[in-house]
Amino acid sequence: MTSLPARVEKKLGLVIDLDICVGCHACVVICKEWNTGSVGAPLADVDAYGEEPSGAWLNRIHTFEISPPNAPAQIVHFPKSCLHCDDAPCVTVCPTGASYKRSEDGIVLVDESMCIGCGLCAWACPYGAREMDPVEKVMKKCTLCVDRIYNENLQEIDRVPACVRTCPANARHFGDFSDPQSPVSRMVADRGGFDLMPEMATRPVNKYLPPRAKTCTGQGGEQIPVTAGFLGWLDRALDRLG
Amino acid sequence: MHPAISVIFFTVISGAGFGGIFWIGAGLADGASTPLRLAAMFLAGGMAIAGLLSSTLHLGHPERAWRAFSQWRSSWLSREGVLAIACLSAFGFHALLWLTGYPGIFIAGWLAGLLALTTVFATAMIYAQLRTVPLWNQWLTPAVYLGFSLSSGFLLVAAFSPPTTFLGWPLAIAAVLLLCIAWSLKASWRMNGRCKTLETRGSDIGSATGLGALGKVRLLERPHTGENYLTREMVHKIGRKHAAKLEMLAVFLGLVGAGLVCLAVWALALPNGFLAIAFLLQIAGLFFERWLFFAEAKHSVSLYYD
């Protein structure tokens, strides 16, 4: 059913720490790797080694530059995947019931055998989290590695989404946001975690942590006054030369 | 947004077909001879069906299209499918009553007509419901779709109707009036659309990344060097290149051309069959109008890619 569940027992999701992410794309690659061999159709590429390679990815990293007033510019690597929204518009627009949100853990999934590939869910998502598979012609999206997190054949340490497990910088964290004492909830409270585009009223579960303020030795472009020692003497001497 | 030909054809042609069903139900073809009325019914119903079939062409899995009838509780796309089938069934019933001479044709006709308008409303709501595309997310969107459906459907059926008046109105003048109403709605939609942008809704690269409070944000690098499904479908820009010229063509064909033909039919007392020219001109104009409806709409995903 494409109506949203009245309540969810858990709110599983990710915290992505923009202060830590180094933009190595390891999470992007492992996401493709795990999900191409996972349940459902493989994540296809078209013309992979040709002139115009293109394909379906469930996680992509954009890179942004922030120019704060009176401080040097700073780079932020920005991984983006499905945010498993509480009020997921992609679910309610689905005409077939292929898109659904699970009441037990809040994960938003697609039943590929029911998907007609109309693409309306991708239009309804503000974040671009859904991509049509170019070969199978069904909608693909992040499953929060639903086939890992409950998989008792894996060691306990591996029962997290592949992107979280693989991140070499520990910028990605997985947990239950319905529990205010869970590590992810506390992390969000401590660091001022935020929603993407709250004005879209989707109430995303995934949260982002802002980059920490950088320690600046001086303000961009300005001269650093030197007053003491040999350099101070040289500075004053050169000033006197005109 | 990517202007898919199948979806443009679907919204324009099925809109005219459902508009035609409404006017036949309202009795516009009542004065026509049996073969002419049959032709009008066949065309209106046929265009509604052709449009619906065309819409399945853009599906990844058209063979599963029947599944789309199931989620009418939550999905406008599903509602549209259910309403279209209900309307065509009522229209078929109406045709059966008419052919066999049974009573009740009036009620069946109005039922089909009202279902036709509800179907067009549901089609428009597929777009109007999307908060992600502010230009579409306004109440004038269904009004525009209904206006164009009623005016093009009127011309379609009027071309088969020998009487020169309908409910006391000269047919050609009524057609001009409907054209003017439809295009005025479109003009209001455009005006209103100027304050329906991502920016006025509070969405920009700062809110999309959540980093706006820290300073000016700009995209340094896209995730991959090539295009992807999102950029092709939702960050589509090529269609906007000739927007001003295409808009002129839309108005010139769909309003000025169609309207002048109607006025000529009225002034020279030509047979109503000439209104078919006005119908074709309006449909041609609507193809340009619908192209721009998609091509000019900006989706919030573009904030991550521009």
Characterise this structure.
The complex is a heterodimer of chains A (242) and B (306). Chain A is of the alpha+beta class and 242 residues long. Chain A contains 7 helices and 11 strands. Chain A has a 3-stranded mixed β-sheet with strand order 10-1-11. In chain A, strands 2-3 form a two-stranded antiparallel ribbon. The N and C termini of chain A lie far apart (80 Å). Chain B is mainly alpha-helical and 306 residues long. Chain B contains 10 helices and 3 strands; from the N terminus they run αααααββααβααα. Chain B has helices spanning 5-25, 34-57, 76-100, 105-128, 140-158, 171-194, 205-209, 229-234, 243-267, 275-295; strands spanning 165-166, 169-170, 216-221. Chain B has a two-stranded antiparallel sheet. In chain B, strand 1 and strand 2 (169-170) form a beta hairpin. Chains A and B meet through strand 3, strand 4, strand 5, helix 2 and helix 3 of A and helix 3, helix 7, strand 3 and helix 8 of B.
Strand content of chain A: 15-25%
Mean pLDDT figure of chain B: 94
What best-fitting shape of chain A do the alpha-carbon axes yield?
Answer: elongated
User: Most extensive interface: pair and counts?
Assistant: A-B, 67 and 58 residues
Could you spell the SSE succession of chain A in H and E letters? Answer: EHEEEEHEEHEEHHEHEH
Strand order of the largest sheet of chain B: 1-2
List the total number of helices of chain B.
10
N-to-C CA distance of chain A: 80 Å
Short description:
The complex is a heterodimer of chains A (242) and B (306). Chain A is an alpha+beta fold and 242 residues long. Helices cover 21% and strands 19% of the residues of chain A.
SSE blueprint:
The complex is a heterodimer of chains A (242) and B (306).
Chain A (H helix, E strand, L loop, with lengths): L11 E6 L8 H11 L8 E2 L7 E2 L3 E9 L6 E8 L7 H4 L6 E3 L6 E3 L9 H5 L6 E2 L6 E2 L5 H4 L12 H5 L5 E5 L6 H9 L15 E3 L19 H12 L2
Parallel strand pairs in A: 1-11
Antiparallel strand pairs in A: 1-10, 2-3, 4-5, 6-7, 8-9
Chain B lengths: L4 H21 L8 H24 L18 H25 L4 H24 L11 H19 L6 E2 L2 E2 H24 L10 H5 L6 E6 L7 H6 L8 H25 L7 H21 L11
Antiparallel strand pairs in B: 1-2
Helix pairs in contact in B: 1-2, 1-4, 1-5, 1-10, 2-3, 3-4, 4-5, 5-6, 5-10, 6-9, 9-10
